[in-house]
Specification:
The chain has 21 helices and 27 strands. With 627 residues, the chain is an alpha/beta fold. It has a nine-stranded mixed sheet with strand order 2-1-11-10-12-13-14-15-16, with helices on both faces. It has an eight-stranded mixed sheet with strand order 7-6-5-3-4-8-9-20, sandwiched between helices. Strands 18-17-19-21-22 form a five-stranded antiparallel sheet, with no helix packed on it. The radius of gyration is 26 Å and the shape is globular.
Amino acid sequence: MNSKNNLLKKDFTSLHQFLLRSAEEINSLDKPFLHRKVNGLYTPISFGSALEKINAICTYLVSLGWQKGDKVALILENCPEYIYWDQAMLKIGIVNTAIYPTLSPEETEYILNDSGAKGVIVGTSFLLKKVQKVRSNCPHLEKIFLMFEGQANEIDLISYGSLISQGKTMKAIHSTAVEKRFASVVPSDLAALIYTSGTTGVPKGVMLSHYNFMSNAYDALELCQQLDHTDKFLSFLPLSHVYERLVSYFLCTYIGGQIAFSEGIEKIATNMGEAKPSVLATVPRLLERMEDKVRKNVEAKGGFGKIVFYWALGVGQKVRLRKEKGKGKNIIQVFTYPIANKLVFTKIREKLGGNIKLIVSGGGALPQHIGEFFGNIGIQVQEGYGLTETSPFVTVNEFHRQVFGTVGRVAPSQKVAIENIETGNLITTQTYNSFAPDFESEEGEILVKGPNIMLGYYNKPKETQEVFDKDGWFHTGDIGKFEKGYLKITDRKKNMLKTSLGKNIYPTPIENAYLKSDFIEQVFLLGDKREYVTAIIVPSETFCEKFNIVVNEEIITEWITNPEHISFIQNELKIHGANLAKYEKIKTFALKATYFSIENGEMTPTQKIKRKVVQEKYKETIENLYR
């Protein structure tokens, strides 16, 4: 067990105490905490500087008379200021209500009203316009805080610079009140509201306490004991998402590490080379892109370099396979691996900054061959599993034992059960201590218990009751089984799509939005484990009449591929998808000449399209949509 700097201390009363211990005990106030790009270079921000901003925000919010339990929404991209705002709210018991910057105005309005947010922080003028568009419908909203220059009136539109200045000025007046509020925060207090779409498409506010997150950080370190205060995390996934918040933020502050902020996914490779992180939390799609880029570069160069690359990859694979069996290098590999490492592997790792110790993959299924590729070149990828409702971490592959295609070992403080979908009986219940490397189980729905499980859905007691059974198990809605002692996700209980970028998408409300067009009869949404959403669309009779189409077997291919017809439907999608979030919109589609029907086996008697049947039947068409 790693006891360096007493990292396994677990007697905290709030998440803000993670940061205070990191600043005052593990490190010191003058040591770097955050790193941001300034004039082309990563520039450090000390713990002391960060705490000064955090305390100024605390003072200002207390001066407004806002109370413990009040909600403030953040619509802000990842940056040091996100940490300042969140830490200030955690310190005085105000609840961070996260809103994705990509949500539509209607979804933003719903979250502001459902949460009763008194304030909202906006990162850009574009986001301000979105909030102002719906503000008259949000009676609880008192203040809008601007993280950009201009447009502030200092009455209800408050500039960040002015807020910090006022907070510092009023420190002496409110310092006692701030510290009293800090002392009042307890582990069971609500720390965050993170909204996730329900099966009806209506967002549900997942209530997560300080201890939900703290217990998850404790568990994460126990299964990733190679982490310590010397680690630097590169943050690029949205902090409005529970996964990034736990790994790159709360876990980091727990162990006393540092956070560097990426300039966005399109610059992630460049930023890794500049910031030189040791830890990265990512989604499978980015790893797929990395692997694809490496292989394409090798193929493009060809020649002797290509031969060396694939030889080295073969050596790495053999070493990895022996390691997975608990064996070291054989006598040949003792000589060949250092050569492969020097000629190939170190060069790839240098492009990722040269310091990468661990990549955590979550938010979607990691293709097995991708995990194996990184393992072959000596980069540790630990795939895990969890949900917003579980704070999020439930299982993760261990550092010393990788089983690619699985999501790892049950966390120390949690229990995972597999329930028979037909009978409702528990097939097995597994814990950290019951782990056996050869354990296998039948598949069923994954159930979870533990201190990381949410407090419930905000303002939704009925929906909360529906996901917990009489024995207190949280029903994830995911299907899985145990394989080689680790949990393996095999299917989804419902038809939710989860893109490779980690976005949860429920097809029905999106399909219904597009079906408002008079020219569209049926829509079948696609996108599970893919980067973006596509669809198979059946035009309506109105469409056929408009274009004088008579369905004839001999001309079906001609009219469904006609550029004029494609363009027309594209415009209909644009019109009727205007209020959808960017990631929900159909990017490409294929037209289908005949209806999905019961007669052809594509629909159920209740008129629901059979997802697996259609995906198999139109497999080639679907693959073409992603080429």
